[in-house]
Amino acid sequence: MGLFSFIKNAGAKVFGIGKTDAEEAAEVSAEAAAAKLKGEEAASKKLEETIADLQLVVEHLNIKISNDTATVTGAAHDQSTKEKVVLVVGNSNGIAAVDDQMTVENPEPEAQFYTVKSGDTLGKIAKKYYGNAMKYPVIFEANKPMLKNPDLIYPGQVLRIPHLN
């Protein structure tokens, strides 16, 4: 008999059976969007739990993730807590930006942020910002509880560099 050519999706339209490519794509897209939203909500809740586990207290903390941006709202007791929350969220896998909309009950000077480069140590960073490598414990303390060991920092990680009093 031979090979006959047909319009691929006409059957679904003519007989009302099956789905067109466009219908299938729309369905897959809707399922993917729902799964992504569910994943973003789960990631938001996990970050909120992590912040609570780290004993960073923020009243009415709310984290909303959309694509690779996290929006953080709530009232932090002090600037240090606010900055640590931003760092916990921003140093999480999949987050490229943090929209910080938190308020601070007891304002104080903002710390600087520093992105760790290959070969960096807390001593080298302290030397750069404070002129004294032996001031590295100030940076280490400012980044607790996210840092557990002053020798364990990694490229791409963002650290708080507080002002010296």
UniProtKB/TrEMBL annotation:
InterPro entries: Bact_Kbp (IPR052196), BON_dom (IPR007055), LysM (IPR018392), LysM_dom_sf (IPR036779). Residues 30-64 form a coiled coil. Gene3D superfamilies: LysM domain. Keywords: Coiled coil. Residues 39-106 form the BON domain. Signal peptide: none annotated. It holds the Pfam family LysM. It comes from the Bacteria. Residues 112-161 form the LysM domain. NCBIfam families: PRK11198.1. This is Peptidoglycan-binding protein LysM. The lineage of its organism: Bacteria, Pseudomonadati, Bacteroidota, Flavobacteriia, Flavobacteriales.
